[in-house]
Structures are given as C-alpha cells and as structure tokens.
C-alpha cells in the first residue's frame, strides 16, 4: 500500500518535471534565438527560469488540486494505478478537501516524505496527515479483494464495498 502511494507520487512528480523541463527548454531556445538576433535585454536571461518555476507551481496545483477535483478523485498516476480519493463515508471530496490535503503535504513531505510514510504505515486507515485532516481515504478503485479487506472496508465506510466498487488500501 505504501509502495503504491509512493509510486503514485513519483509518477505524478515525474509527469510535472518532464512537462516543466520541456517548457524550460523551449524558453531557453527562445532566449538563445533572441540573443542571436541581437536582442540583449536582461529579462531574457531570467525569463526561462521564471517560466520554469511557474510551470512547476501551476503543474503542482493542477495535478494535486484541479485534476482530482474534476476527474473523480484521481490524479494522472492514480488513474494508471487504479487509486481514488474518497471521503470517509465513501463520497466525493469537495475542493476544500483536496486543498487541505495539498496544504498539509508540507508536513507529510518533511524529511523526504518520511512523516507521511510513517503515518500511512501506523494509522488504521493508512492515512497521511492531509488525509486525516481532510477526512479522506485513498482507495483502490474497483478491485476485488479478500473478505478480510472487504470487511475492513465495511467498517471504514459503513456500507457495502461491492456496491461502491471500492476497497481500502491496506
């Protein structure tokens, strides 16, 4: 479970980094071309850096906030790994829930993610701090699991996991 969530984070991060490097290279190319054409403005030196930083920030907000809000609780990597974010009662999280999860990633990401990893390992519902405060869970989407996991799902959600097509990661 921890490995799946770690892989999901790594894939989402890789997606953002690759996109931002492509944008950076495009703007470096633009700056070099402008320099070769005789434009010697100081802003051309800083433009690629600022655009790269802006791309990273906007990409982070898009992947961690907007994409799951608009796509049923999944990031691009979560879709690939068949994971989804749900509320504790199995509902669809609100934007503020995604915002709280994102904001508390500052704490969960401390010491290279060790804080979040330890919390995922020791909490009964395998939640990091952002999940606990936002009252959300990361669940497998539509995977048949053992009766033990399904009974844990019933206890967590107070409902029938088959009806919801969800199983808690565990």
TrEMBL record:
Q: Which UniProt keywords apply?
A: Membrane, Transmembrane, Transmembrane helix
Membrane-spanning parts = 14-36, 43-63, 99-122
Which InterPro entries does the UniProt entry name for this protein? RDD
Answer yes or no on keyword Transmembrane: yes
Note the coiled coil stretches, chain numbering.
none
> GO CC terms on record?
membrane
Annotated RDD domain residues: 3-134
Q: Where in the cell is it found?
A: Membrane
Spell out the Pfam families in the cross-references: RDD (PF06271)
Cleaved signal peptide residues: none
Tell me what topology the record assigns in the membrane: Multi-pass membrane protein
Q: What is its main location?
A: membrane
Protein name per UniProt: Putative RDD family membrane protein YckC
Biological source species: Actinophytocola oryzae
């Amino acid at each position: 479970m921890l490995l799946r969530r770690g892989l999901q984070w790594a894939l989402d991060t890789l997606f953002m980094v690759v996109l931002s490097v492509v944008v950076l290279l495009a703007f470096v190319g633009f700056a070099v071309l402008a320099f070769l054409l005789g434009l010697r403005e100081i802003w051309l030196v800083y433009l690629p850096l600022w655009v790269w930083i802006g791309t990273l920030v906007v990409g982070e907000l898009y992947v961690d906030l907007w994409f799951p809000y608009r796509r049923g609780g999944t990031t691009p990597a979560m879709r690939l790994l068949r994971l989804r974010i749900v509320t504790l009662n199995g509902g669809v999280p609100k934007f503020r829930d995604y915002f709280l999860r994102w904001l508390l990633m500052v704490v969960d990401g401390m010491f290279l993610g060790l804080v979040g990893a330890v919390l995922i390992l020791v909490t009964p519902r395998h939640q990091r701090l952002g999940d606990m405060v936002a009252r959300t869970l990361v669940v497998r989407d539509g995977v048949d699991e053992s009766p033990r996991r399904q009974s844990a799902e019933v206890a967590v959600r107070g409902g029938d996991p088959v009806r919801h097509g969800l199983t808690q990661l565990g």
